[in-house]
Amino acid sequence: MKYGVEVYDYKGEEYKIAMSYGKWRVAYLNHADTFVEENFEKIERHNETDEVFVLLKGSAVLIIGEELNRVEMEPHKIYNVPKGVWHHIFTKEGTSVLIIENEDTGDKNSDYLYIK
Q1: Which residue among 22, 46, 58, 70 is least packed, with the fewest CB closer than 10 Å?
Q2: Domain coordinates of the chain in residue numbers?
């Protein structure tokens, strides 16, 4: 901590919670095989919280709804997936996405729908 400011960074793969405060958390989602379109197996929905995605760098596509609609993400725009909406994300090598969601988001308040 410098001058009372906490600084977070993450260069690894997959999803990593960077920090939490009160009822919310901020996480990094960095490219990994899990998010490659050819490996797509399931979509998820969170029943108690919205989930916010911000593309920091690279290329990402949000998959929305059971119809698997594609939303091409643009850097630095805020994409809010409302609670109860099915979603997944595809990424390419070098992609980093910031995620903001409720601290208690997880299996106990989420559903999964297997596509394959």
Answers
A1: 22
A2: 14-114
Report the topology of domain 14-114: Jelly Rolls (2.60.120)
pTM of whole model > 0.85? Answer: yes
Distance CA 31, CA 33 (A): 7
pLDDT digits 0-9 by tens, 73-86: 999 999 999 999 99
Cα–Cα nearest to 31, from 57, 56, 13: 13
Instruction: Check: CB of residue 17 under 8 Å from CB of residue 27.
Output: yes
Give the tens place of pLDDT for each residue, 16-72.
Answer: 889 899 999 999 999 999 999 999 999 999 999 999 999 999 999 999 999 999 999
Give the whole-angstrom CA distance, residue 40 versus residue 34. 7
